[in-house]
Amino acid sequence: MNQVQQPSSQVLGVLIPGGVVRTDFIPSDPSGTKFTLALTGISGKDISTVSELVFFLLPGVSLPQDHGAMLFWQIVSTPSSDTMSSTPFTTTGTTTTEFELVGAIANHRPSGAFRTGWSTNETLVSAIHSPSSTITINLGVSIEPMSSVQNVGLVQDKTTHVAKKIAMDLFNYMQSFDTGSGGGGNMVVPKNIFERWMSRFETKAKVDPIFFMKSSDDS
């Protein structure tokens, strides 16, 4: 990775909706391209209630040209008898998981609200219910060339893509009821098909808010 000059002042912010803005990212390597932030103030079972993180550039600042900022998270597990530190990596007895990607921002898209998936993450849910450890979240940021950011499908306007996915879910549901008697490319379905689909959609969304995005059909 080519070295990128470290910004002279803090440029990044993160927010749990309804919480306070955090800007106290700490440089974690000499290159000035990686930062960490201990997500203090929320731990244990409360973590699973956080469905989104808002990640943004502070007003009036920017990232190095042609670069984006990728946001990651990891589980920090500390034995319950230990005293928590504001920097989890230095706490004796602390263990951490590998970082997982949340989302990314760039100069042309300086903010974004990203799903955490914490309520359905099996590793996190299991750790939260462990009586022997205190669980917190550590955030990591890596400043990467836009080519790397775009390769993982981030920093794009996904509104149209999401709409297509929802429409395809509805189409597939309707097709499953088609009697085949319509002919000529027409569907024959029950009159209440939309209400039945909507009820199913809402039920599934409560379990997994982005279940419809996991379909392999991108038509």
SSE inventory with pairings:
Blueprint (H helix, E strand, L loop, with lengths): L11 E4 L5 E2 L3 E2 L6 E5 L13 E6 L9 E13 L15 E2 L3 E7 L4 E5 L6 H7 L4 E13 H6 L7 H17 L17 H15 L12
Antiparallel strand pairs: 1-2, 1-5, 3-4, 4-10, 5-9, 6-7, 6-8, 6-10
Secondary structure tally: strands:
10
Q: So what's the oligomer here?
A: single chain
What string gives the helices and strands in order?
EEEEEEEEEHEHHH
CA-atom Rg in angstroms? 21 Å
Description:
- The chain has helices at 122-128, 146-151, 159-175, 193-207, and strands at residues 12-15, 21-22, 26-27, 34-38, 52-57, 67-79, 95-96, 100-106, 111-115, 133-145.
- By secondary structure, it is an alpha+beta fold.
- Strands 3, 4, 6, 7, 8 and 10 form a six-stranded antiparallel sheet that branches. A four-stranded antiparallel sheet has the order 2-1-5-9, with no helix packed on it.
- The chain is globular.
- The chain starts with 11 loop residues before the first strand and ends in a 12-residue tail after the last helix.
- Mean pLDDT is 79; it is low at 82-91.
Give a concise summary:
This protein is of the alpha+beta class and 219 residues long. Helices cover 21% and strands 27% of the residues.
Features:
219 residues, 4-stranded antiparallel beta sheet, globular, alpha+beta
